[in-house]
Amino acid sequence: EVQLVESGGGLVQAGGSLRLSCAASGFTFDDHGIGWFRQAPGNEREGVSCISPNERDIYYADSLQGRFTISRDNAKNTVYLQMNSLKAEDTAVYYCAAGDCMDGNMTYWGKGTLITVSS
After folding, report:
1. CA-based R_g, the chain, Å
2. CA 83, CA 74: separation in Å to the nearest integer?
3. pLDDT value of position 65
4. Residues of the chain with pLDDT > 70: what percent?
């Protein structure tokens, strides 16, 4: 059974930091790019960041302005998203997904974790 399980979400004050984890199982992890996406209330889902299987290609949404860092540990089948200088507009459900970072076609999805940034 394929699973992507996000953790690390919660409530944080504006300016604070959080680190999300995405633990994967049930598929060949190091054959897949892993991406983070988010969906705020009333908004469409948007891409946040993506990291290729060998970490050679990393993508970030322009709107992040360098505040987030993605990394992966293939030995642990886990991807991380370090989020710093959080803003109220970062409030959303964050999802991780496995697939192709280049064309954005993601095959497997997690159920998401909520981040609420209080101002």
Report:
1. 13
2. 20
3. 83
4. 100
What's the pLDDT score for residue 112?
98
Tokens for 25, please give them: 């199982």
Do the Cβ atoms of 23 and 77 come closer than 8 Å? yes
pLDDT digits (tens, 9 = 90+) for 35-66: 999 999 999 999 999 999 999 999 999 989 89
The residue type found at 106 is: M
23 falls in which pLDDT band (50, 70, 90)? very high
Separation in Å, CA 19 to CA 24, 102, 103, 115:
16, 24, 26, 11
Cβ-Cβ contacts under 8 Å for 63 (sequence gap 6 or more)? none
Check if the beta carbon of residue 4 is closer than 8 Å to that of residue 99.
Answer: no
Q: Tokens 């992890």 identify what position?
A: 29
What does DSSP assign to residue 87?
-
CA separation for the pair 34, 78 (Å, rounded): 9
